[in-house]
């Protein structure tokens, strides 16, 4: 009969059966290890003024690095102007190891080598020269011709032209010279529009110019027309011209700019090089067509323009009146040396 093993007996195959006693050398090593750990722990507790830092240990074995002294940066010229300062060029300076001993062999780097990073300087506003403004050539000042002085003692001879009328002196002087005439009822009708035929009649009496132009046959002029000879003379002397299609349109009312252009052409007034500058001082200069700008500017520059009723306007498209024609012709005769400037 087989007997059961005693459960209180240790299993011969268990690890506990294989335990052995420590040797004397192992016991000594353990004691030394515990003493070393205790010494380090006690030393750490005594360092109350300085924290434990691996950097301290590293400095004892690594070569010392010289302290980097920051470069002195001159003040920016844009300081206080609200302009961002240009970044300074980066400088990569290799540290120089000390000559003292260490566990690492020192390497001699190139000292003071700066990186080649381009820097775009910012120029302060005070250093930027402003672009000069274009110099505009001022319009030449026009010296107006002396105006005739209205004189109450000099009657105009017309019942509807009082002595204080703006063109009374012009009308009175031209009437005295038989350049203009009134109507049979003793009136002049100064505000009545003037026609091309009437203006041709005034020109033929005001100027004695040579006939240098060809005589033009106009289809709308009969041979017995009352102003036929005056129209022919105004064309031959260069003051007036016809329209395309061989017509003159004698009954057409004349705008102011055509009166001025006719006088400038007949008196051979030289158009200015830059007529726009002469006309720029008038508020309505843009109403003058391109073809008439040079002639109107020449009339303004010569002083034959009256600018009535506003000195700042030419009224180029306004239909001229008999008073306008008298004033312009009078001043043109003064310009041509046919009348003394002052009328009394």
TrEMBL record:
Source organism superkingdom: Bacteria
Xref: Pfam families: SLH
Coiled coil spans: none
UniProt keyword annotations, A-Z: Membrane, Transmembrane, Transmembrane helix
Annotated ranges, domain SLH: 154-217, 218-277, 279-343
TM helices/strands, residue ranges: 27-45
UniProt protein name: S-layer homology domain-containing protein
Natural source organism: Myxacorys almedinensis A
């Amino acid at each position: 009969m087989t007997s059961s093993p005693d459960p209180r007996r240790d299993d011969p195959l268990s690890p506990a059966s294989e335990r052995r006693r420590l040797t004397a050398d192992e016991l000594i090593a353990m004691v030394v290890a515990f003493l070393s750990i205790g010494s380090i722990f006690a030393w750490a507790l005594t360092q109350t003024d300085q924290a434990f830092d691996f950097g301290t240990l590293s400095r004892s074995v690594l070569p010392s690095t010289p302290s980097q002294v920051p470069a002195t940066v001159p003040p920016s010229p844009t300081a206080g102007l609200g302009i961002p300062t240009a970044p300074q060029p980066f400088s990569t300076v290799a540290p120089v190891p000390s000559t003292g001993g260490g566990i690492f062999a020192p390497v001699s780097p190139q000292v003071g080598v700066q990186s080649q990073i381009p820097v775009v300087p910012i120029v302060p506003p005070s250093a930027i020269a402003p672009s000069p403004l274009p110099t505009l050539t001022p319009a030449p000042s026009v010296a107006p011709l002396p105006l005739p002085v209205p004189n109450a003692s000099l009657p105009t001879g017309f019942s509807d032209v009082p002595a204080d009328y703006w063109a009374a002196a012009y009308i009175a002087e031209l009437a005295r010279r038989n350049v203009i005439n009134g109507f049979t009822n003793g009136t002049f009708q100064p505000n009545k529009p003037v026609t091309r035929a009437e203006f041709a009649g005034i020109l033929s009496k005001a100027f004695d110019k040579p006939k240098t132009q060809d005589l033009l046959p106009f289809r709308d002029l009969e041979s017995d027309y009352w102003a036929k000879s005056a129209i022919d003379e105004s064309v031959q002397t260069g003051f007036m011209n016809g329209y395309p299609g061989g017509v003159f349109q004698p009954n057409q009312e004349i705008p102011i700019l055509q009166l001025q252009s006719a006088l400038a052409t007949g008196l051979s007034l030289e158009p200015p090089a830059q007529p726009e500058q002469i006309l720029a001082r008038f508020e309505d200069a843009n109403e003058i067509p391109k073809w008439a700008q040079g002639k109107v500017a020449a009339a303004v520059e010569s002083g034959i323009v009256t600018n009535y009723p506003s000195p700042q306007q030419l009224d180029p498209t306004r239909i001229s009146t008999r008073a306008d024609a008298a004033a312009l012709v009078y001043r043109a005769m003064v310009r041509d040396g046919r009348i003394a400037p002052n009328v009394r």
